[in-house]
Amino acid sequence: MTALTSQLSAHIGAAFKKHNLPEELGAVRVSDRPDLAQFQCNGAMAAAKIAGKAPRAIAEDIVADLQQDPIFAEVSIAGPGFINIKLTEQALSDHIITLNADENLLVDNIGLSKNVIVDYGGPNTAKPMPVGHLRASIIGESIKRVLKFVGYDAKGDIHLGDWGTHMGMVLSEFEIRHPEWPYFDKSKTDGFPSEPPITIQDLETLYPEASKASKSDEARMEISRQVTAELQKKQPGYYALWKHCFNVSVEAMKKNFAALDVYFELWLGESDAQDYIPEMVEALQKQGHAIEDDGAIVIPVKQETDKKEYPPLILYKRDGSVMYGTTDLATLVQRMQDFNPEKIIYVVDQRQNLHFEQVFRAARLSNIVPEGTELTHAGNGTMNGQDGKPFKTRAGGVMKLEDLIQMGVEKATQRLDEANIGQDYSAEERADIIHKVAIAAIKFADLQNNRSADYIFDLDRLTSFEGKTGPYLLYQAVRIKSLLRKAADRGLKPESLNKVELGEHETALALILADFPNVVDLTARNYTPHVLADYAYKLAQSFSSFYSHCPILSDAAQQGAQQSRLFLSALTLRSLEKTLDLLGIPTPERM
Ligand code: ARG
Question: Which residues span the domain enclosing 496?
């Protein structure tokens, strides 16, 4: 199972080898100039240095060999020694048939079932879920899907923020307002009510008030801190009420994430790290990695070569409470014990870069995470409003994820009306299509940008059915589905062929189809879903141009051409839907 470029590289590598040159020089890639060639190999440049000969002379030797190879229709030299390559129709047809026959569309299994943890999403309990966590959720979901597809046993962990001062603020605010609740009876250690005394709406209004009260009054803040420290010691009353807040929040989050088609295998959080902390800190102190500093316990992480300031990672504050870094480090202890993963990838706002650098350094120097396990902070940029600042509501408040999805749905409804789509469908089907269009718009807008770049959220543009948008991609996929349905009605099915007839437009499409495994491989290695997003757009455009030039159902088409075109259409649909699925975007049956 190999991508077309890998197969071609093997052919050309053999030619280099024959001339006593390194085989790797035969590496082939898709040509930058599709008008001149399909593929190119630039190995003669590097070979020239090794052999002490002019690159052109080397290229001539290689080309002379390749011309004997029946899979090449044309091999030529451009400029100082670039080798341009074009395949025969037969060779490309053979390849496309092999591609179609492979369940994974020739994507290599590089994961070999090894464990990977993708840490993404990271919302905080007891707070309304703001759009700030949207990018990490969307990008992380895609990275996880890609890693699974290339053979890793990848698990998504939401790593809830459920153990910090914000929980102390909320719990203490409840205590101030309802001192009579059993949770605040310090002599009580069990038998707390099993029904939550609060709803998600209560939490969503309470948190901002508790936070404001704490931040504006040092004495009030001190109470929040004390309650945080008590919670972290699992004081029974606070812990019981905390658990209610946790459950109520998680239930609401699950709904939000399901609406976004984002799913987590692990619903763990900072609180799950607590039980690992005392032993971890003790060991770190024994090893001399953790030291006392003005009443706190810290791990110095600075290195001699540093060009900027690396403050120590704080494990215990003076009041004995733990910090964001403590729970992240202890979570690593837990992950190594439970999964011994090959990689741990954090898809988290890139503004947290220093935090992760501190945690990773601490994990390495104490050998909590050995060198064999990759630790990557795949940081994401911010979603901004038209003013270039982080996206807010019109009133300037925090935009909730729920409300954003609702905005997307309203806009998608308007778009479907404008385009006269689905007027005669059942209300249920229409609602499903609208939801999928909204999700595709929101997710594709995000995923098409480089992960670390900020981008401006423009709902009007991204719900359009034209241009580089999610709805455009759905529209193309649905067009193919409809074509295949119409063909089936006439008794035409994409058969398994011995030969795919490849004219100019078919060839252009076939070459893009053949590139799929390379694109997936690149995305899996670099955690860059935008590469896949680009591919989806290129594929959809190429199909659109093929379809407008190559009639399929009209009588004009010859039988051979018709079968070949149906075959290519079906394969395009499969690749496009798979690409969209890897991006986390579901496709409707019709629109
Ligand atoms: N809860 C954190 C926040 O809102 C994000 C968590 C990211 N993951 C992690 N392992 N630190 O900023």
Answer: 470-582
For ligand 1, say whether the CB of 119 is within 6 Å of any of its atoms.
yes
Pocket test for ligand 1, best of 344, 348, 350, 382 (most atoms within 8 A of CB): 348
| Mean pLDDT in residue range 170-174 | 98
The 10s digit of each residue's pLDDT in 10-27 is 999 999 999 999 999 999
Ligand 1: which residue has its CA nearest to atom 5? Answer: 122
Domain C-terminal end among 380, 415, 436: 380
Dist. CA 9 → ligand 1 center (Å): 43
Pocket mutation for ligand 1, best pick of 157, 159, 335, 380 (most atoms within 8 Å of C-beta) = 159
Mark whether 127 and 217 lie in a shared domain. yes
Nearest to 44 by CA among 54, 32, 29: 54
pLDDT digits (tens, 9 = 90+) for 55-104: 999 999 999 999 999 999 999 999 999 999 999 999 999 999 999 999 99
Q: Is 347 helix (H, G, I), strand (E, B) or coil?
A: strand
Cβ atoms 446, 401 nearer than 8 A: no
* 273/194 same-domain check: yes
Cβ count within 10 A of residue 314: 18
CA of 588 to the centre of ligand 1 (A): 33
pLDDT in tens, 260-302: 999 999 999 999 999 999 999 999 999 999 999 999 999 999 9
**Closest C-alpha to ligand 1, atom 6:** 122
Q: Which DSSP string corresponds to 425-461?
A: S-HHHHHHHHHHHHHHHHHHHHHTS-TTS-EE--HHH
Say how many Å lie between the CA of residue 387 and the centre of ligand 1.
26
Residue of minimum CA distance from atom 11 in ligand 1: 328
Q: Which residue type, as a one-letter code, is found at position 162?
A: D
DSSP character for 183?
Answer: G
User: Is there a domain that residue 420 lies in?
Assistant: no
Task: Please check whether residue 530 is in contact with residue 115, taking contact to mean a CB–CB distance below 8 angstroms.
Answer: no
Q: DSSP letter at 272?
A: G
Measured from the CB, is residue 325 less than 6 Å from ligand 1?
no
Maximum CA pair distance of the chain?
Answer: 91
The closest-lying atom of ligand 1 relative to the alpha carbon of residue 355 is: 11
Q: Are 137 and 179 contained in the same domain?
A: yes
Query: Is there a single domain that holds both residue 175 and residue 74?
Result: no
Domain co-membership, 138 together with 82: no
Q: Final residue of a domain: which of 44, 71, 87?
A: 87
Ligand 1 proximity of 161 Cβ (cutoff 6 Å): yes
Number of domains the chain contains: 3
Q: Is the CB of 124 under 6 A from ligand 1?
A: yes
Is residue 348 domain-shared with residue 237, that is, in the same domain? yes
